[in-house]
Amino acid sequence: MAFTALFFAVLYLPIAVVVLFSFNSSKSLAVFHGFSTRWYHAFFQDAELTGSVVTSLEIGAVAMIGSVVLGVLLGVGLVRSRARIGKLANVIMLVPLITPEIITGVASLLLFKAVDLRPSLATVMIAETTFSISYVTVILRSRIAEVNPEIEDAAMDLGASRWQAFRSATLPLLWPTIAATALLVFTMVFDDFVLAFFTTGVTPQPISVRIYSAIRFGIQPTINAVGTLMLGGSILLIVLALVLPRLFGRRGHGRNLFGG
Labelling 200: which of 1, 84, 129, 182 has CA 20 to 30 A away? Predict the structure, then answer.
């Protein structure tokens, strides 16, 4: 019990300190002089920091949409494929999950240099989307495997094409998992540092890279405010990722009960 308490104290006390001093009325990072929101006002008035947040939101949105679309298609293909290459592809999809992210970042940088792509917002989006596909595919693959393919066969017997059968019969069953996975991907990409650091350009920079650049010259109280806002946003997205599947499930169960 004492070891567990010590573990959580070491894990969460530094985060609590960051949150506390984001409301400090002075610039001190050691003594709390009083409650104030001045550093939050300073953050919203800082064009560079707010611009970096917008950039991270854009990267997260693009990576989320791109990886989910490709991950769903890839997941369906891997589950439904009967060829031997399908089993090999299932193993290959696990490789990015166990590869150190710094290796992925260096490899992405070398690839972009090889094809003469200068680090920019586009290269970050490409790298983050590619990296996230494996997470989406692995998560959705297990859910797709649970869906009875005979549902699509029944829809095609009624005159639907294969795409129409997938869209109307299988896809609605996957929406809860898709929504949760999309939120988790957005959360990971939004505050990702390693991959963004190796693939971003001089400007615009994601907020994680901007914070790293700023703390090299000393931690400013504004950074505490940014970190607190990022923490709050990440917690909110994780809660939504946990709640949405249950919400969709209840609605689906209600429709089944009442014939909707």
Answer: 182
Q: What is the pTM of this model?
A: 0.82
Token code pair at residue 34? 């009083």
Q: How far is CA 56 from CA 67, 112, 169, 227, 231, in A?
A: 16, 20, 35, 14, 14
Cβ(234)–Cβ(192) under 8 Å? Answer: no
- The predicted-structure confidence for 4-20, as pLDDT tens digits, reads as follows 888 888 888 888 888 88
Asked whether the beta carbons of 206 and 124 are under 8 A apart, the reply is yes
Residue 178 CA to residue 162 CA, distance in Å, equals 20
- DSSP one-letter string for 150-219: HHHHHHHHTT--HHHHIIIIIHHHHHHHHHHHHHHHHHHHHT--HHHHHH--SSS--HHHHHHHHHTT--
Residues 6 or more apart whose CB falls under 8 angstroms from that of 178 comprise: 68, 72, 140
Whether 172 contacts 152, CB under 8 Å? no
Hey, is 149 helix, strand or coil? coil
- Length of the chain, in residues: 260
Average confidence (pLDDT) over 62-89: 83
In the chain, how many H helices and how many E strands?
13, 0
